[in-house]
Amino acid sequence: MGEKITLSIIKADVGGFVGHSAVHPALIEKAEEHAAKAKKNGIIIDYFCGHCGDDHAFILTHKKGPGNEEIHKFTWDAFLDMTDLAHSLGLYGAGQDILSDAFSGNLRGMGPGYAEMEFVERQSEPIICFLADKTEPGAWNMPLYKMFCDPFNTAGLVIDSNMYQGFNIQVDDLKEAKKVTFDCPSELYQMLAFIGAPGRFVIKHVYSKKTGEIAAVTSTQRLSFIAGKYVGKDDPVMAVRCQSGLPAVGEVVNPFAFPHLVAGWMRGSHHGPLMPVSMKDDHPTRFDGPPRVVALGFQLKDGKLVGPRDMFADVSYDRARQIANEMADYLKAHGPFEPHRLPLDDMEYTTMPIVMESLKDRWETDTEENKAKASGKTI
Ligand code: 13P
Ligand code: 13P
Ligand code: MG
Ligand code: MG
């Protein structure tokens, strides 16, 4: 067996340009500086600095395993440095995802999101890194279900002798900090009862049943649960290994041809379609959206990231983008009404407590007696 490699995607929004629409080029340059230094010092093997909307993502390879202090610390220091730069440029929401000022071992609960997995590199190791903006970690549930559970998406589930055994899928309950692993396909229906509610239940890990190998990992931090108040949606990331007993690259990217509805968009308080875009179009602008996803494909070789290939920069996604734009028009026309606006408990912004308080003396109990009074009758 070869040596284990760790792939880490570590991301944060430390300031938007302009508003919440993009990462300023100077911040990307700063991130590059930190990553190049870490590579030179042997902390990491390789890196790619990616972004989606106003979120910067370090895509890293190393041999230190998930949750490693040195890896998390170097990205934390980079994000702090980028935050200073964001302040000096007056960028919007500078330091938005920096929730703590003292690093103590790893990034857990500190604001940045991360998805990490450790594995022995195969002879050929194709990996797709997905980065999203203006949405939440549960946005990956439906695409992951299609990749690993749905034979109408993934032909290999039926015709590949290394895949038809199925997958073990770990689901986290973000509200109660619990997890459970489903044996799929036999427990698909039980799993769907949870993952169909993506605001709370989120797929975290996927493992091949044939080999026990890890196949996918997502970031599951939920800033609103961590901070207890609105500090921006999580804008999640995910990494998926492909081929040879795992879904083929085409089976991994195909689910995004359907721009499903996700929570996020304007002020983190609206439903909108998740639009698959190329890196050059990863700037959510219209009504701060619609929500975006980019897919960066790499071949790993001795831990080196060969790539990326910009997977959604392909004409076969034009129709998904067109449908997403039409869905955006349709939903946007609902204005402040649900289901465009999120249900009361899921909104990241709300005036409800103030409005409720200001009207507290004007709400009358709607009893039969009051109704009769209003119509001038006696009972
Ligand atoms: P593998 O079984 O080598 O993953 O090949 C499947 C494939 O690429 C079909 O599209
Ligand atoms: P971000 O979570 O991407 O910073 O967006 C916040 C927002 O309010 C968009 O309207
Ligand atoms: Mg932002
Ligand atoms: Mg963002």
Task: Explain what this protein looks like in three dimensions.
- The chain has helices at residues 25-40, 69-88, 141-149, 156-159, 188-195, 223-227, 249-253, 318-332, 352-358, 368-374, and strands at residues 4-12, 46-52, 55-62, 113-120, 125-133, 167-173, 178-184, 201-208, 214-218, 237-241, 261-264, 270-273, 275-276, 292-301, 304-310.
- By secondary structure, it is of the alpha+beta class.
- The chain has 2 domains: 1-116, Alpha-Beta Plaits (2-Layer Sandwich); 121-329, no CATH class.
- Strands 5, 6, 7, 8, 9, 10, 13, 14 and 15 form a 9-stranded mixed sheet that branches. Strands 2-3-1-4 form a 4-stranded antiparallel sheet, with helices on one face. A two-stranded antiparallel sheet has the order 11-12.
- The longest helix has 20 residues, at 69-88.
- The model has no long low-confidence stretch (mean pLDDT 95).
- One 1,3-dihydroxyacetonephosphate binds next to loops.
Features:
single chain, alpha+beta, Alpha-Beta Plaits, 2 domains, nine-stranded mixed sheet, 25% helix, binds 1,3-dihydroxyacetonephosphate, binds magnesium ion
Compute the separation of the termini in Å.
86 Å
Summarize the biggest pleated sheet: 9 strands, mixed
Q: Mind telling me the C-alpha Rg?
A: 22 Å
Quickly count the domains: 2
**Beta strand %:** 25-35%
Tell me roughly what share of residues is in helical segments: 25-40%
Work out the number of β strands: 15
Low-confidence stretches: none
- Large-scale geometry: globular
Q: N-to-C SSE series?
A: EHEEHEEHHEEHEEHEHEEEEEHHH
Bound molecules: 1,3-dihydroxyacetonephosphate, magnesium ion
Structural class: alpha+beta
What is the average per-residue confidence, as pLDDT, rounded to a whole number? 95
Give the count of helical stretches: 10
